[in-house]
Design a protein that fits this description.
Length: 103
């Protein structure tokens, strides 16, 4: 009977130690969250206190590089379809080319 009592007491002590470890870890997490919230408040304050950009600075834009060429809308382009499957007359004024790659 003495051995059973010692076993129960040891088991209870171990449970209390695990509980204390969890409480300690929870307190650490709570402290870290408090620090994070304080840091967020500091950053929000900095953002609110930042001077607004001057209107002249906002109006300035970086110089644009060369623009890509555009097709000439008045030009006529001939697209050779070769012996591809077609639908409609061979001398149509408009050719629509549809291409797919099934790899």
């Amino acid at each position: 009977m003495g051995l059973g009592t010692v076993t129960l007491v040891l088991a209870a002590c171990q449970g209390q130690g695990a509980f204390n470890a969890i409480q300690t870890k929870l307190a650490e997490i709570s402290d870290q969250q408090t620090q994070i919230l304080q840091r967020i408040d500091q950053l929000e304050t900095k953002l609110e206190n930042m001077p607004a950009a001057a209107p002249a600075a906002r109006g300035k834009q970086a110089p644009k590089g060369p623009q890509p060429g555009r097709p000439d809308p008045s030009a006529t382009y001939k697209v050779a379809v070769g012996d591809a499957q077609t639908k409609g007359p061979a001398d149509a004024k408009i050719t629509v080319v549809e291409w797919s790659d099934f790899q």
